[in-house]
Amino acid sequence: MVWVYKGFDWQRELPRILAIDVRWVTVAVIADILVYCCQGWRWSLLLSPLARVPAWRSIQAVYIGLFANEILPLRTGEVIRSYLQSKWAGLPFSVVISSAVIERLFDGIWLILGFYTITYFVTLPALLVEGGRLLAVVLFTLTLLLGVAVFTKHRAHAAFAQSRWKEKLWHVIEGLHNMGNSQSFYASFALSFVYLALQVVPVYALIKGYGLDLSIGAAVVVLVILRIGSIPPQAPGNVGSFQALTKLGLMLLGVQSDVATGFATVLFFAVTVPLWLGGFVALALTGMKLSDLHRDAHTRPGTVQVEPQP
Predict the structure, then answer these.
(1) Angle 242-247-253 from CA coordinates, rounded to 5°
(2) pLDDT of residue 167
(3) At what angle do helices 22-47 and 93-118 cross, to 10 degrees?
(4) Concatenated DSSP letters of 273-301
(5) What gap in Å lies between CA 104 and CA 109, rounded to an integer?
(6) pLDDT higher than threshold 70 for residue 302
(7) pLDDT tens by residue, 195-248
(8) CB-based contacts of 113: which residues, under 8 Å, 6+ apart?
(9) CB–CB of 60/77 below 8 Å?
(10) Where are the domains of the chain?
(11) Mean per-residue pLDDT for 286-304?
(12) Alpha helices in the chain (DSSP H)
């Protein structure tokens, strides 16, 4: 945050921020909502071989998880949303958390493809390049492990036969095998591209609304830098890193520092405020407090009941 706002001329840039075309802001907000609706739909598809999970229920869990990420550090919301889904769908927590890992694997594959595509058009900082390479190695390793569980279930079972956690591991392997051998698995992978593409829309809409002379390709560059840079666990809501990475992406495209800072500020609030509101409503529908969910998800995910709301 210090780097982003050091020397920022609020007097000059604030009128430009306030003059942004509201129509483009509306497009950005609607697209951002659709992003998480798409994520919920994908999650339901992924889990469909194991249980019937309504898309609206997955969307609710996703929004609660996102809301938790805005308040709690280290992306605790990923655990909380998986905990809720396991209770609502009647599935083992370990299986549901594995499905969330598969989601991130899908996202990572599409993100890496996008990352190496933009390197042909923009020279990225060495730290981001090294981060991209590390992510590629991690994704390759996870893909191999997933392939073992999906296509050689019995060998995977034999490998963990002597483990003290063999029963839980077998639940995970069985779940991965069933998910990976269904058509919905590949549909979920394809939907992951839509999920990532929808995230470009808010960036491009605000580029237009802010009056920047940049193409949709520039929006892709900013998004990929933002997502790659946001992978390590960070402060709640990615405050600071979100603005810094957005500013960095725009400056690499030739945008002046103050203009890039103003745009990063607008983008942060345009995609975050709807998330706060949606997450608050989704949490209120459960009748529980976030602190209770945080405690239960981390201490006893198999015992506390959360009743679905009508």
Answers:
(1) 135
(2) 56
(3) 130
(4) HHHHHHHHHHHHHHT--HHHHHHHHHH-T
(5) 9
(6) no
(7) 999 999 999 999 999 999 999 999 999 999 999 888 777 777 788 899 999 999
(8) none
(9) no
(10) 19-299
(11) 75
(12) 2-5, 10-18, 22-47, 55-71, 77-89, 93-118, 126-151, 153-159, 166-180, 183-209, 216-229, 241-252, 257-286, 290-299
- Tokens for 118, please give them: 């933009």
Backbone phi and psi for residue 301, each to the nearest 5 degrees, phi listed first: -65, -10
Long-range Cβ contact pairs of 284-290 (< 8 A, separation 24 or more)? 285/60, 285/309, 286/60, 286/64, 286/84, 290/64, 290/67, 290/68, 290/71, 290/72, 290/80
The two tokens of residue 211 are 């009056």
Q: What 3-state DSSP class applies to 183?
A: helix
Q: Does the pLDDT value for residue 160 go beyond 60?
A: no
Rounded distance, CA 286 to CA 288, Å?
A: 5
Tokens 């929006």 found at:
219
Residue type, 100: A
b/e string for 9-47 if b means 16 or more Cβ within 10 A?
eeeebeeeeeebeeebbebbbebbbbbbbbbbbbbbbbb
